[in-house]
Amino acid sequence: MPESMRSTSSSGQEEPQIHLGETQPLSPPLAPKRSRRVTSVLQWVFQALVLGTAGIALVKLWELFSTVQKEVLAALIAGVAAVTVNVVVKYLERKRAIEQEIRTKKIPVYEEFLRFMFKNMKAAKAGTPLSDEESTTFFMDFNEKMVIWGSSEVIRAWSVFRQTASERPYETLFAMEQVLRAIRKDTGHADNNLKHGDLLRLFVNDLRTPDE
Hints:
elongated; 67% helix; single chain
């Protein structure tokens, strides 16, 4: 088709030319595979640069230590060792201080419990047992303190004692002994030479253990 067209009117005069615009072809979009390939190459180049820089730094560091005099290197090692020992000592001191603080809090709780138990036994022996209200009030307060200050072994022994007292009363004394053993262990006693029933014999006459 010609770029322009002429028309002639019936009077013989030429009409103005009408020019048709040329259509420009669209550029094809960048292929996805090519884009991914470029990204992979850039990532590989970046990783290579990072590894290369790290390798050079290690080599330079090794060269630096190789040229350092033995006296300087020995002083450096001694300094690092001193810092490490100081950090460990501070950690152990802090741990020991925390343990001591907990110990000072839990011992009064254990002493209060033992005083109540002996008071209860004395009252029962005298024929004037403690009221249920008094016992309930004490044990509710004691349980609250045990949650905070009691060791895991004491809490476990106390839970077994409470369950035994309600389900198997004839085993209550021996369950109580386990509570006493756990308390003594938590306060620093080894009790390696104590046998089964030795603690109970302090306040129970003619005690016979199951294995006797």
